[in-house]
Amino acid sequence: MNQVDMNTVLDWIVKYGGMLLLAILFLIMGLAVIKWITRRFERTLKKREIDPSLLPFLKGLVNIGLKVLLIISVMTMVGIKMTSFIAILGAAGLALGLALSGTLQNFAGGVLILIIKPFRVGDYIAAQGHSGTVHEIQIFNTVLKTPDNRTIIIPNGGLSTSSVVNYSMEETRRMDFIFGIAYQDDVDKAKQILQDILDNEERFMKEPEPMIAVSELGDSSVNLLMRAWVNAADYWPLNFEIWERVKKAFDAQGISIPFPQHDVHLFQEK
Length: 270
What we know:
The protein is of the alpha+beta class. It has 3 domains: 3-99, Helix Hairpins; 109-166, SH3 type barrels, CATH 2.30.30; 172-252, Alpha-Beta Plaits (2-Layer Sandwich). It has 7 helices and 8 strands; from the N terminus they run ααααββββαββαββα. The strands form 2 sheets. It has a 5-stranded antiparallel β-sheet. The protein has a 3-stranded antiparallel β-sheet with strand order 6-8-7, with helices on one face. β2 and β3 form a beta hairpin. α1 packs antiparallel against α2 (54-77). It is elongated.
């Protein structure tokens, strides 16, 4: 490197070095302040008992917005003219918007979900071929937790425009059971067994009134339908218990539960 180049470098360091160092320090301090502000903002929201669904979304929005302002301030400090930068940013934003149209759709979907509130954190839903408990509603995605502790991340764009089944929105649910008995078994006796199970279970509601009826004459069985309403929280625990109770009660009373079978007839060719 010759003397002219060395002098140029030294002049640049003298002219911009202090400004660049100041900008770096400002950036480090700014990131620390943003982290502190974000935590304080989150605590304030929790104290005011804001809907848990909004917490991650608002926290992320504030964090990103403050960081964008910090970067613009740092660029101004090092002497970058914002007029030309804004023009470049606008062109880049247009290209980026076209490239990230799906991401922007997910962002808009997240906003719609938080405004319309088809589900909240803690609700059990089924959507996009998946089901689970809503763990978190983020800016771009919704996080579900399955009963076997799997994590499912669904983009908000598709989630906001497709059908969603919310199992937790209503306080009560109807339980439907289909029990098959053999054709030679006594239908009235089987219905009475089911009625006794209904009468002896306090978690079944009396209104709407439960019902028991023959629903179908199947290929291998007479199918009995049993319907009853319960509180949503009792649905799954009671569902597993009833199947076991009916099986044991049918066995004790001599009611058989047939399995599918076919009769094969062989004809001897003359």
